[in-house]
Amino acid sequence: MITGSGNVSNAVVEQPAAASSSVPNSRQLPFRGREDSGLNVTENSSALPIDVVVDRPADGVVVATVGGEVDMLTAPALRAVVLTELDDCTVLVIDLSGVDFLGSAGLAVLVEASHEAQRRQVELRLVAAGRSVQRPLEITGLTEVLTTFPSRDDAVNAPG
Amino acid sequence: MGEVDVDGTEVTVSEHEPSTTTSDKPAPGADVEVRIAASPAHLSVVRAVAADLAMRADFTLDAISDLKMAVDEACSELISRSVPDGDLVCRFSVEGEQIHFAAEAATTTVVPPSRESFGWRVLTALTDSVNTWVVPGPGGGHVLRFDLVKKRADDVVGL
Fold first, then answer.
1. pTM of the complete model beyond 0.80
2. Closest-CA residue in chain B for A108?
3. Each residue of A102-116: pLDDT tens digit?
4. What values do phi and psi take at B58, rounded to 5?
5. Which of A135, B86, B110, B123 has its CA 20 to 30 A from that of A94?
6. Between the CA of residue B155 and those of A59, A61, A145, B83, B112, what are the distances in Å?
7. Cβ contact (<8 Å) for A135 and B65?
8. Cα separation of A81 and B73, whole Å?
């Protein structure tokens, strides 16, 4: 819980024993808050205004579904999940449909993900729907660099 | 001392406070000031204020999105450079067809953000004008300031 003073207790979020999502074969990965700025995260995984749920709908295909806000506070959590998943797939879909805000910290994660994916010969696909995500991608020219789809199904089923 | 960046945004990056402000003082009641601890946890508050004021000022949806992002960018820069336990002070002025946003924080660095950085290029893409500069702070420190203007609609042919 974030108190009025902005100070919160410090902990690494541990992976829950059972998946809480209704998506089959999904798991929520642990993520770390920033450890260098004095900002900490609580033991309650819902304290950060972001959630990332990972599932594997097909062989070698990983979908990371992101909800909430991606800013300086929460981008490190997304980054940690993405870099972990890039080690273990041939196609990574980052589904941003549920994202209400995407700032430059989040865009930087997507750019880094794109470079890392190329390095590991993983195909990176984004699901970008709605102004909150499409506008930042357009205005920074990243729609030229990143492959986007309007829906999760389009992204998952696109030919490799 | 103004330069025009590639996309038409007026950009000034200087070590000294500009001699003139970018606008007259707005009418009483148009100002909103937000003071937060310089922590990323509070960015959403400043974004929410920006979005609320922009909606009330009849900004287009794209302009609201751009203002939120620009405010977030400026505040994130300030927070990342802030002295420990510092505060960030933001001020919004609704001026007819535009919103003027100014923010400052006591910082550990003397040099303003680089014009080559990704974040700065994002700021110039999002805004109609943007400034950043460092002034001496009370007690011998430094204060980094950001100043930006966003119009309610893009000047796009056909809009």
1. no
2. B118
3. 999 999 999 999 999
4. 60, 35
5. B123
6. 48, 42, 26, 39, 29
7. yes
8. 23
Angle among Cα B87, B30, A70 to the nearest 5 degrees reads 50
Nearest C-alpha neighbor of A31 from the set A17, A14, A10, A49: A14
CA-CA distance, A109 to A103, in Å (whole number)? 10
Using alpha carbons only, how large is chain B's radius of gyration in Å? 15
Find the CB nearest B62 among A38, A135, A140: A135
Residues of A in contact with B79 (CB under 8 A): 37, 72
Question: By the 8 A CB rule, do B11 and B2 touch?
Answer: yes
Q: Mention every residue, 6+ apart, whose C-beta is less than 8 A from residue A122.
A: A86, A89, A90, A91, A92, A116
| B interface with A, Cβ–Cβ below 8 Å | 36-37, 39-44, 47, 61-62, 65-66, 68-69, 72-73, 76, 79-80, 84-85, 118-119, 121-122, 125-126
| d(CA B22, nearest CA chain A) in Å | 24
Residue B115: predicted pLDDT? 85
Smallest Cα distance from A133 to chain B, Å: 10
Q: Could you read off the pLDDT of B129-139 as tens digits, one per residue?
A: 999 999 999 88
Residues in chain A within 8 Å Cβ distance of B54: none
Lookup result for tokens 């609704």: B94
